[in-house]
UniProtKB/TrEMBL annotation:
GO terms for molecular function: ATP binding; ATP hydrolysis activity; microtubule binding; microtubule motor activity. Residues 1-10 have a biased composition (Pro residues). This is Kinesin-like protein KIN-10A. InterPro entries: Kinesin-like_fam, Kinesin_motor_dom, Kinesin_motor_dom_sf, P-loop_NTPase. Pfam families: Kinesin (PF00225). Residues 13-26 have a biased composition (Polar residues). The lineage of its organism: Eukaryota, Viridiplantae, Streptophyta, Embryophyta, Tracheophyta. Keywords: ATP-binding, Coiled coil, Microtubule, Motor protein, Nucleotide-binding. Signal peptide: none annotated.
């Protein structure tokens, strides 16, 4: 590693304690300049250390104070700075230190910069940054002054050709000729970063229409976007004439935003970046003149805009500081994107071929000493940045090739095995998916069937509802028109006719309908006992019931049968009935309900009652306790019931072997208990009970079960609510909540309730016909008690 060129020791300078600045792990060294030619041995430049830090101490602003008790001392090694503070000296070791009083710009350039620039000429990449507080001489070093050109112009001259400098011209014309002779061609962009925006200073110049690229002071700048790490489409100055390019750069540089501050009369408020490419060799030189890193108070900025401006300037400086610290610390994340400046400088830090020359500008003014120290601390940190050295690429040998081939082959085998496993997994997953799809399809089919059934069921229920409504209307019209007598008489006439056709029946049986209807009581005239009539009635009604079995309930399907009888038998509309309309007693709603209930009760119960007419042709006439049992044929009872005649029942003794006295009580409710009629059961009366008025069915059950026990009959049962359209069984658990008064009344003439019991086999209801489909039954109709 070549040593950093040591400056000539100044006998006037004093030397103090050794450096306390942390030593970098690898430090860049300047190549030893070859005498005479001014070039350096670039091959000796180490590549591991990307940042080189040079201190540049400007002239003292006050010439009177020069050499008067200086706070900054430069040791003779020329690589460190000693700063005297209140608590002692602080040493900062850098890669080089230059004092402008001793070394003008030319010397400084030749000593520390020239070698880098010449490296760019042959393809290297270098970034030269001016860092320091405001007024410390950054711009002066970068651009120079009228007396001496700065780094920018000298670099252009060095790249495009060696030459001498003419007075008033940044670079001599000779440089242009040299560059032309060498065939080197450069491309230059000049950017300004102000308020975190990138402006193209050359674009303003060219858009001004100068033709020759001369900048116009008031031309508007063009803002550039940033893509990745580069400004998008900047304007370039291209050429091989250093003089022309330098002049144009000098002009556009004057367009930088400056402001007078306490620290600097013409303080740069923006960062300026000059990007010089040498396309033929891929070299790149980035020259960055940063705005002052002063704080707002020190700059004496007042007003919101000025403070914001200073804050934005500091944003770039602070971001750059963080980038340097992150890299030096070896952090995994470097905050390049914290500012536009660091975004554009990203390649400078990361590109292996790129080097950074950081020139720390400082003032010897004791009043600026804290800024000087801060700047030097920053430079010392930057010096610690180490880029990992790239391991030398071993030359492949035949042995290593064989090993590589073996290694790759094993890796390929592993990968193939992994691929096979993945393919197997894929096949399994595909199979699983197919099965799931199949199952889903089946479920969808089932769902479609269920939906179809539900739809069909709904349609059926709707039809039945319509039918019910229609029947109710017909019945209402029928009764309101006073035709009930006709209807009932019609039916009874039909019954009589049918009975008359029955050879087994006694023809002499007569019914005085007029008396029955007009008196309101069944008046039986020498009706011969005819069990065949009762049998017929019992046989006929189940037939009706069977016809209605397709309907929802017995009521709904019995009624049309009656109406059909009326419609089909027009001949039977006897005048006799018509003539007696005037004699009819007005039918109240209660009577109508009672009659309807009587009809169903007869169909379900009374017919059996007639059938069980003890084969003697006698039947107890209800309602008259003292009356002797009157012989009454089933036909007569049926007709009486159909005609709305009150049936008086006091005792069921004719129906029951023995009158039930058990359970009777004063002031209670009379309950007539019978079995439901079914194919298996004839629907016989069981008993008559008297229970308290507020008795529930559960209480009635207790009484009945006691009664059954007395009879040695353990038949289980459920109550039927005959008022319910379905004659629905009452669930046992509901019996406690249901009053006996909910049971149907025998009739409006008989003060008693009718308890119809449905026998249970093994505690299970016998199947009842439901209007719903089997599917609906499966779904659990609430009508089915399990
Ligand atoms: N080495 C020097 N010799 C003579 N004059 C100098 C030197 N350095 C700086 N100056 C003068 O000091 C003034 C401020 O310098 P300059 O503008 O370069 O500072 P700066 O660091 O760029 O400040 P800012 O950050 O505010 O732009 C200028 O007038 C400049 O000519």
């Amino acid at each position: 590693m070549a040593p950093t060129p040591k400056p000539t020791p100044n006998p006037n300078q004093t030397y103090h304690t050794p450096s306390r600045t942390p030593n970098p792990r690898q430090r860049l060294q300047f190549p030893t300049p070859k005498a005479g030619c001014g070039t350096h041995n670039l091959s000796s430049v180490p590549t591991e250390h990307p940042v080189e830090v040079i201190g540049r101490i400007r002239d003292h602003p006050d010439s009177k104070e020069r050499n008067h008790n200086p706070l900054i001392e430069i040791p003779p090694d020329g690589q460190s700075i000693k700063v005297r503070t209140d608590i002692g000296y602080r040493d900062f070791t850098l890669d080089g230190v230059s004092v402008s009083e001793n070394e003008n710009l030319e010397v400084f350039y030749n000593k520390f910069v020239k070698s880098r620039v010449e490296g760019v000429r042959v393809g290297s990449k270098c970034t030269i940054m001016m860092y320091g507080p405001t007024g410390s001489g950054k711009s002066h070093t970068m651009f120079g002054c009228a007396r001496e050109p700065g780094i920018v112009y000298r670099a252009l001259k060095d790249i495009l050709g060696d030459g001498t400098h003419e007075q008033g011209d940044p670079v001599g014309e000779e440089a242009d000729e040299t560059g032309f002779k060498l065939g080197i061609f450069v491309r230059v962009a000049v950017l300004e970063i102000y308020n975190e925006e990138i402006y193209d200073l050359l674009s303003a110049n060219l858009n001004a229409g100068a033709g020759n690229g001369i900048a116009k002071g008031n031309s508007q700048k063009t803002r550039l976007e940033i893509i990745g790490k580069k400004a998008k489409n900047p304007t370039y100055l291209s050429g091989n004439e250093a003089g022309k390019i330098s002049r144009e750069v000098a002009k556009v540089e004057k367009r930088r935003i400056v402001r007078s501050t306490l620290c600097n009369e013409r303080s740069s408020r923006s960062h300026c970046m000059i990007i010089l490419d040498v396309p033929s060799v891929g070299g790149r030189l980035m020259l960055v003149d940063m705005a002052g890193s002063e704080n707002i108070e020190a700059a004496g900025q007042t007003g919101f805009e000025a403070k914001m401006q200073t804050a934005k300037i500091n944003q770039g400086n602070i971001a750059l500081k963080r980038v340097v610290e992150s890299i030096a610390n070896g952090d995994s994340h470097v905050p390049f994107r914290d500012s536009k400046l660091t975004m554009l400088l990203q390649d400078s830090f990361l590109d292996d071929k790129s080097k950074i020359l950081m020139i720390l500008c400082a003032s010897p003014d004791p009043r600026e000493m804290h800024k000087t120290i801060s700047t030097l601390e920053y430079g010392a940190k930057a010096k610690c940045i180490v880029r990992a050295a790239h391991p030398a690429t071993p030359k492949p040998t035949s042995q290593s090739n064989a090993e590589s081939v073996t290694l790759l082959a094993s890796q390929i085998a592993l990968m193939n095995q992994h691929i096979c496993e993945l393919q197997r997994d894929k096949q399994a997953l595909l199979k699983e998916r197919d099965q799931a799809l199949k199952s889903l399809s089946l479920n969808e089919d089932e769902l479609a069937v269920v939906r179809f059934e539900v739809k069909r069921m709904e349609e059926k229920v709707l039809r039945q509802d319509n039918e019910i409504e229609s029947l109710k209307n017909r019945l209402r019209e029928f009764e309101c028109g006073g035709r009930e007598v006709v209807s009932f008489g019609h039916v009874t006439s039909r019954l009589a006719e049918m009975v008359g056709d029955d050879q087994n029946m006694v023809k002499s049986m007569e019914l005085d309908y007029s008396d029955q209807v007009s008196s309101g009581f069944v008046d039986v005239k020498e009706v011969k006992e005819d069990t065949s009539v009762a049998s017929w009635a019992c046989n006929l009604l189940p037939t009706i019931e069977e016809e209605a079995s397709e309907a929802r309930n017995l009521h709904l399907h019995l009624l049309p049968t009656i109406f059909e009888a009326e419609e089909s038998e027009e001949v039977e509309k006897e005048v006799v009935q018509e003539e007696r309309r005037d004699e009819m007693v007005p039918v109240t709603e209660a009577d109508r309900q009672t009659r309807i209930e009587n009809i169903f009760r007869l169909c379900g119960n009374y017919r059996e009652l007639a059938k069980k007419d003890d084969n003697k042709g006698h039947i107890q006439k209800y309602g008259d306790e003292n009356a002797e049992p009157s012989p009454l044929s089933a036909k007569s009872q049926l007709v009486a019931a159909l005609a709305g005649s009150p049936i008086k029942v006091k005792s069921v003794s004719p129906l029951c072997p023995k009158e039930a006295k058990w359970g009777e009580m004063e002031g209670g409710l009379d309950v007539y208990v019978k079995w439901e009629v079914s194919k298996e059961s004839s629907g016989s009366m069981i008993t008559k009970l008297t229970v308290p008025k507020d008795s529930t069915l559960s209480r009635l059950r207790l009484v009945l079960e006691a009664h059954f026990n007395e009879k040695n009959n353990n038949q289980d049962f459920v109550f039927l609510l005959l008022k319910d359209p379905m004659g629905a069984p009452v669930a046992k658990e509901m019996e406690a909540e249901m009053q006996v008064t909910n049971l149907p009344k025998c009739s409006n003439k008989i003060d008693g309730y009718l308890a119809s019991l449905r026998p249970l086999k093994n505690g299970v209801h016998r199947p009842i016909h439901l209007p719903l489909s089997p599917l609906e039954n499966k779904l659990g109709s609430p009508l089915v008690s399990t």
